[in-house]
């Protein structure tokens, strides 16, 4: 990607347009062209009167791993994942996350530059308050969006550049035949925790701590246990999914 090599003025122009695209999929020609059928099938409710209010991209992300999208909508899936990678540059490129969490970012994470930094900062704040029994200072809407961002990050190591960097050698030596996505690389690293480098081991421990603190961000658990969760835990907050399934 060329973004980091652009002039300041050009970066501002690109950022403004990308932020607009994130909230209005109807002006994103690639997503609109490649995902038209998927949008019509799964995300019609998010298009109010033909206009996106920031929900279509989230809807596409939530359905990108559905069997139907994998088989017939692979070009749409590729386009969505490309936009997910672009959105790592700034939390402003994730419309609903930005709208729900902006006040908290300004207050608690003013030095965070990328979306990854913002997610890490806010999730640490939420986790510390949860573990200490403090009253949440992060709004419910922001916490919901934060969960969605963490779930995406745990689904694909490509959406967690920091983890990918510190575990690069470990992935090459231990998970070389594992394809990114569906939480597979993360699962591979977790299964090989006793063989990991010290730095990668610490990073994986942090991921596991996030998942144990809030089960709703554990992609593999929610995917593997989706049917039992729907059958036996329909009223249970997914953050406590593991407790319900035991």
From TrEMBL:
Cys-rich GLG repeats: 5-68, 71-130, 137-197
Any one GO molecular-function label of the UniProt entry: fibroblast growth factor binding
Predominant cellular place of this UniProt entry's protein: membrane
Gene Ontology cellular component terms for the protein in this record: Golgi membrane
Pfam families for the chain: Cys_rich_FGFR
Membrane protein topology class: Single-pass type I membrane protein
Residues passing through the membrane, by range: none
Transmembrane recorded as keyword: yes
PANTHER family for this protein: GOLGI APPARATUS PROTEIN 1 (PTHR11884:SF1), SELECTIN LIGAND RELATED (PTHR11884)
Name the record gives this protein: Golgi apparatus protein 1
Organism: Ladona fulva
């Amino acid at each position: 990607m060329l973004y980091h090599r652009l002039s300041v003025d050009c970066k501002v122009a690109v950022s403004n347009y990308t932020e607009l695209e994130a909230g209005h999929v109807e002006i994103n020609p690639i997503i609109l062209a490649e995902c038209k059928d998927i949008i019509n099938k799964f995300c019609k409710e998010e298009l109010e009167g033909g206009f996106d209010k920031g929900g279509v991209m989230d809807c596409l992300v939530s359905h990108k791993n559905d069997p139907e999208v994998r088989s017939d909508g692979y070009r749409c899936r590729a386009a969505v994942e490309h936009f997910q990678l672009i959105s790592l540059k700034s939390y402003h490129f994730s419309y609903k996350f930005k709208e729900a969490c902006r006040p908290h970012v300004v207050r608690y994470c003013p030095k965070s530059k990328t979306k990854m930094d913002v997610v890490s900062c806010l999730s640490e704040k939420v986790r510390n308050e949860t573990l200490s029994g403090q009253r949440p200072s992060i709004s419910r809407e922001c916490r919901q969006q934060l969960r969605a961002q963490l779930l995406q990050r745990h689904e694909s190591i490509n959406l967690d550049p920091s983890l990918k960097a510190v575990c690069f050698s470990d992935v090459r030596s231990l998970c070389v035949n594992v394809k990114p996505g569906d939480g597979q690389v993360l699962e591979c690293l977790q299964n090989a925790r006793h063989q990991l480098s010290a730095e990668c081991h610490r990073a994986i421990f942090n991921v596991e701590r996030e998942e144990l603190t809030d089960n709703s961000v554990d992609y593999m658990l929610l995917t593997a246990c989706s049917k039992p969760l729907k059958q036996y835990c329909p009223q249970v907050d997914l953050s406590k999914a593991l407790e319900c399934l035991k």
